[in-house]
Amino acid sequence: MPRWGMVIDLDKCFACQSCTAACRMENNTPIAGPDQAILGRAILWNEVLPFLEGEYPLVHATMIPRPCMHCDNPPCTAVCPVRATYKNEEGIVVVDYQRCIGCRMCTVACPYAIRYFNWFPPEWPQALKQHLNPDPEVAPRPKGVVEKCTFCIQRLHRAREKAAAEGRTFQATDYMPACVQTCTGHARYFGDLDDPNSLVSKLSHSPRAFRLLEELGTEPKVYYLKQG
Amino acid sequence: MDNHQAENQTPGNHLTRRDFVKIGATAAAIGAAAMALKPTVGAPAASALSEQVTRPEETLVKTTCALCPSGCGLDVRVVNGRAVKVEGNPLHPLNQGVCCLRAQASLEILYSPERLAHPRIQMGRRGSGDWKEVSWDEALALVVQKLSDLRKNGQAHTLALVHGETRGQMRSLIHRFMQAYGSPNVIGRESLADQVARQAMFLTQGINGLPVYDLNNASYVMCFGGNLLETNRNVIVHLGAVAFMRRGRPQRGKLVSVHPRLNLTGIKADEWVPVRPGTYGALALGMANVIINSKLYDEKFVRDFTFGFEDFTDVNGNLHQGFKNLVLEQYTLERVSKITGAPTETIARLAGEFATNRPAVAIMPNEIAELNSGNSLYTAMAIHALNALVGSIDVQGGVLVQRFPDLEQWPDYTPDDAAVQGLSQPRIDGAGSAQYPLAISIYQNLPDALLSGEPYPLNALMLLNTNPVLDLPQNGRMVAALEKVPFIVSIASTLDATAALADVVLPSATFLEVWGDDFMEGVGYAGVSLRRPVVELVQDNRNPADILLQVAAQLGGSLEQALPWSDYQTLFRQRLSATPLDWEKVESNGFWAEMVYFYAQPGSPAWANIVGRDRLNAPKDGRFDFYSRELAAILSNDTMNDLDCLPHFVLPEALEEVVHEAQEYPFLLISQSLITQTQSWQGTIPTLQECLGLQGNVKWRSWVEINPKAAEALGLHDGDVVWVESHIDRIQATVRVYPGIWPNVVFMPLGMGRHTMTKWGRNAPEQMIVGSNPNRLVDIRSEPLSGQAIIGPARVKIYKA
Amino acid sequence: MHPENKHEKLILKPIHRPTTSDRILWFILGGIFLLGLSAWVRQYVIGLGVTGLNRPVYWGVYITNFVFFIGLAHSGTFISAILRIAGQGWRKPLTRAAEAITLFSLPFGVASILADMGRPERVFNIIFFGRYQSPILWDFTAVGLYFLSSIVFFYLSLLPDIALCRDRLTNAPDWQRRMYEILALGWQGHPEQFHRLEKVLDGMAIFMTMLVVTVHTVVSWMFGMTLQPGWHTALIGPFFLLGAILSGTAAVVIALAILRKVYKLEEVLHIGLFNSIRKLLITFTLGWIYMMIAEHLTIGYGNMKEEMVVLLDKFTGTYATIFWSMALLVFGLPVLILIFKAKNNIGWMVTASILINIGMWLERYIVIIPSEVSPRLLPVMGQGIYLPTATEWLITAAWFAGMFLLYTTFTRFFPIIPIWETAEHLPEIEPEGARVAQTAPTGD
Ligand SMILES: Nc1nc2c(c(=O)[nH]1)N[C@H]1C(S)=C(S)[C@@H](COP(=O)(O)OP(=O)(O)OC[C@H]3O[C@@H](n4cnc5c(=O)[nH]c(N)nc54)[C@H](O)[C@@H]3O)O[C@H]1N2
Ligand SMILES: Nc1nc2c(c(=O)[nH]1)N[C@H]1C(S)=C(S)[C@@H](COP(=O)(O)OP(=O)(O)OC[C@H]3O[C@@H](n4cnc5c(=O)[nH]c(N)nc54)[C@H](O)[C@@H]3O)O[C@H]1N2
Ligand code: SF4
Ligand code: SF4
Ligand code: SF4
Ligand code: SF4
Ligand code: SF4
Ligand SMILES: [Mo]
């Protein structure tokens, strides 16, 4: 089984937020609207987080695009009382929207604050519903449950199906999440961390590589490469 | 069960009889209650599964983005006739498989609830909102009748066509339409945009076009103003190139951003150099001073392939000052440091780095729009002069010249009387006049021309893909000006602020529903991308180009002759036949491109295409003009002095310390668009609104960025709502205390202040104005010679609302 | 056969037909409860968005209430179980009043959780799919067990008195008599029965004491088991527990003072009891401040970046007002009042207790909210905000009203002072005649 992971090179990431938008369009996260957005309830699975340090004119800003880390040792799944969120065999942490009781223990437990709660039923103006991704895995989530980045698991399924239909064995490179595909700086890499020959595995061993809040022992599978 | 299903299992499916036994009899009742609740919850999953059984029809359609001038190739995933996802076309040389967030969100444009479904005619007073939806035949008949009446009455010139960003051959189609109609008044918005960059290229290098920067191969990139990685005409190419410059090749290049505000380019650059707004020119000249003083410039190139570096004597024996002495005398480090606010060591270091890390490029913003402070022409010339100093003209990693595909000549036609008569009239915006000899059109002069009725009043206005009420400084004047025009037709997709004041609105289809061509820019070599409908028309809309062709056909006369095509697709395909294109390939790849750029050796025959090609008055001698001979020829001899032809720096009015307003309005307001905005769509794009202000995490509203010190002095805190007031008007914004901004400068984003009639989000109002438009605070003024709009910085004060 | 208690009449006096003022009180409390209930229904229909919760403040007033109610619940167990084990005889008149608080606050603790859940209708998923790795399941189990055993404990100790009511309150309405009849489970008051009851209660007390320690510790672990700054400390368990006992005991004081006043029970609930509780309260507040200082000093001294953000937010930032008022309410004022004023003065005791309880609610709030407002990724995510909405206050008010409603109703139908426990003589194994004689005086 592959162990899926991502590498984001901050030297090539230009904080364009294309990944943010791509994730929304691929995964049907709803529109929050001005009044909900101001309350911090916008659902964007992959936000770019600004980190500003220093004083004018020596300001240093780091922009960190932040999908789910798909921790190997995920604090979020540990605390779920009903196993509505769990790590699957390939290391992807997913949420079962039909089982989640909406207790938000996982959202509180995730140190990266990447889990989003559906405060209301998802909403779009009628006309906009036409562009929703019809893949069943990303059917809009009901109110009261938690959702988050899935590494675009629907794409993994499609890729497997496609490989099967074409009668070939599925390759790690057949599968690419939406944010990786669109990344304008070609800064995101995706693949099997367990395959020593894969690009992600090599990059994750780069001297520039680090992980967010690594000291917590969550073992994130998203690596960053330092800028500069 | 395969993996996929296993992961999708729901407790709904799981909750079997087995559980009941397990739980035991007492719990059974409870369980039954829970069961009763289950089915409603499990239902979506069940229907999703059945959907899987009947595999939907799915295709990838290749087209070209039109949300900014980059023109990326796109792959649109279409399922059962609906566009559901946009990706970059991996074959496309500009974007190589990626695309920015605007393209990602473009489906929110295609299916926008704000789009107009049918043509409409204003029944009541203009702006009363009393619309009647009509058929295309009816609407076009009305327009054609008005336009043809004007022609019949010898008043063809009193029609003006105002247009926004155009792609491919659209611009020449518009011009040809108006020429055959008989009006000189085609007004594009280049005076708010790229006109001055073209003029600077023309006056120095003799090329009428925008410079192309070969960032892939550059070692040192210095960006004077502008926002290389965020806005910009070729943003996608630059993003890819800077990524390559950093990590794709053995030698890492350096990117420097000069700007009063730490924008995304500054953040991601290797160095951010804050300067006072509007002083880029001085900085460039100060760097030139250091480079010349330390003899770090490319002596061979300067000697053999430039003009006006040294002092020279003209044919009449008059002595003229050259660039070198001007710079050495006037732009000493101390003086430049005082003007720009950058420390002398920094300027000296930057100059040294720039000159010694070749190939180096100095980038002038393609579109010196946002805060042209009245000196943009000479500023752009000064910046470009740096490129010549280090010999970066048409070398790897330097400044290239964009090539375009060959086009078939337009067919000949004989202008009829109406056309001939109309074209003999002057333009209403003053472009090309003695005051603005370099200008092609001056968008911001439109309100004044209409209000004064000089040189003559307009009888009809046709707006194509543009919204002057929102884009123009002091936009209240534009509203008043529109009152003066008896007939206004707007070709627009939404009822934007200008269309709302029109008599007829012809709803234009979005770029995802039309055929079109798009020339590749920003890479040097020639190429064309194909735009095509990815889905059927969502509404009863038409391609604006087709509308023009249909109007032309119905008007008859020289128009019919000049534009004998029934639709735009046939037109652009036919004209492109001069380039050897395999249309099948174009359709399957989405584009055609030469893919290789041939650099010219200075002095070689090919060099003629690089320096001097488009000169009209100056010699085509292959020499780059530090001293613009073209300008010398254009300007009348008696008043002209050497300074008029040399890059130099003029302190913007707003920066003068004695400005009487300085006390009352202590801040300089700059504005810029953001990567999260597109100027090509008037409606609301909710996803972009939810990504809006990255640095300050602002969504759905306007903010004003203030340096922490200034905020403290004013007692303002993050999140306070304030008024930003100039001597013209005041607008509201939320305070963002931001360390990345010059202390007495404040920033507001452009593109805000639009009205929406859609309820966005559950508790939002049915109608609202999203943010505030900083253009309302700015005077309308035009720079001499270039006609470029002087938009910034405006002087403002800030106080709590 | 019933115990011999000279205050029996006094104690049974409140059990009469409801008066108008009773009805008004019930109407008001019931009204508030129904209002809150409808707010909850509305919240369920529309979504949790009607609260002030957001990202990253996922938990707010509801969870605060949960912790607070569970804390209140500690009063009963503390007084009747822990003090029973400790052989503190003076506790006897208080036990029922205290246990009733336990019994009636626990359901509202659970209701607070239900109010907080995004999908309350899926609550049984916890049974179907429960995982013991989750602190929520520990909570669920511990609170459930606690509730069940509290019922049993309470009921058992009520049993002799129900039987007494059945036999004494002969002119109560039919349904009420039938209720006593059924609930008494045929209790005959054999000395043997009393003997066994005492034994069972003694045994249960030990179990309950263990449970009570577990429950609140586990409640705290809902926070402590996450990596959030400010929560992830080993002290959080004991700290929560002590706070719970403090607020629970203070609640008992309030309840007793009201009962004493309204039901004129001065004779039974004599001032000496209050003085005994006063000593406990002083001990607990001192213990509380000790933990408080220990906790914050460790964090402050450790000076870890994320922890300090939360700490400073409490000390000097957004939450400073709440924090310092909380410290004043739980410790500063009560300790002064209790030491200098409250001896032999029930008014001051009650004041101190009310302050302590308001303070303890704020303490729960201040433990929960600031940590969420400043999550670990604060410098990149920015500070969160949280302002509870009307819905949250309504539901909060309703749950408290519900608790009072149950409490006041209970006191109208059952003796709130345990008659048998406070009796001078329990039935002993004696000749038949003596038994009759004993019961005779209360016959009329
Ligand atoms: N202060 C200040 N003002 C500025 C600028 C600045 O920098 N500072 N920038 C200026 C510049 S560079 C520009 S480009 C302008 C931008 O300003 P405009 O060119 O006016 O662009 P928009 O305001 O977005 O209006 C675009 C119009 O096109 C319509 N439209 C959208 N999609 C399509 C389509 O596919 N086909 C057709 N036919 N119509 C479509 C929309 O409905 C809308 O009516 O703003 C200018 N204004
Ligand atoms: N995200 C996004 N991208 C866009 C657009 C959009 O709306 N959104 N619009 C597209 C369009 S239509 C256009 S026209 C382009 C505009 O994109 P850019 O060409 O990047 O134009 P602006 O962002 O307006 O920035 C112009 C810069 O010129 C600088 N400047 C002002 N005056 C002077 C001067 O005298 N000399 C020099 N050297 N610099 C000066 C200002 O500091 C400012 O930073 O962007 C295109 N790309
Ligand atoms: S990042 Fe958060 S949600 Fe994702 S696996 Fe780790 S703990 Fe869970
Ligand atoms: S909110 Fe849902 S996924 Fe998260 S812990 Fe609770 S039940 Fe599990
Ligand atoms: S992997 Fe997919 S779900 Fe995750 S952030 Fe990227 S696009 Fe979103
Ligand atoms: S798309 Fe790529 S470059 Fe853009 S913000 Fe995301 S990671 Fe960075
Ligand atoms: S960069 Fe411009 S052309 Fe390319 S995808 Fe973005 S908006 Fe479209
Ligand atoms: Mo533009």
Written overview of the protein:
The complex is a heterotrimer of chains A (228), B (801) and C (444). Chain A has helices spanning 18-27, 33-37, 75-79, 105-109, 153-165, 178-182, 199-204, and strands spanning 4-9, 47-53, 60-66, 85-87, 93-95, 116-117, 146-147, 188-192, 209-210, 222-225. Chain A is 21% helix and 18% strand. Chain B has 801 residues and is α/β, with parallel strands linked by helices. Chain B folds into four domains: 3-52, no CATH class; 120-191 and 414-593, Rossmann fold; 211-401 and 600-645, Dimethylsulfoxide Reductase, domain 2 (3-Layer(aba) Sandwich), CATH 3.40.228.10; 653-800, Beta Barrel (Barwin-like endoglucanases). In chain B, the strands form nine sheets. Chain B has a seven-stranded mixed beta sheet. Chain B has a six-stranded mixed beta sheet with strand order 25-27-26-31-24-28. A four-stranded parallel beta sheet of chain B has the order 11-10-9-15, sandwiched between helices. The longest helix of chain C is centred in the middle third of the chain and has 34 residues, at 135-168. Mean pLDDT of chain C is 87; it is low at 433-444. Chain C has a single domain (6-16, 52-388, 412-425), classed as Formate dehydrogenase/DMSO reductase domain (Formate dehydrogenase/DMSO reductase fold). The B-C interface holds B 11, 14-15, 19, 23, 27, 30-31, 33-34, 37, 41, 697, 762 and C 49, 119, 121-122, 124-125, 127-129, 382. The structure holds ligand MGD (2 copies), iron/sulfur cluster (5 copies) and molybdenum atom.
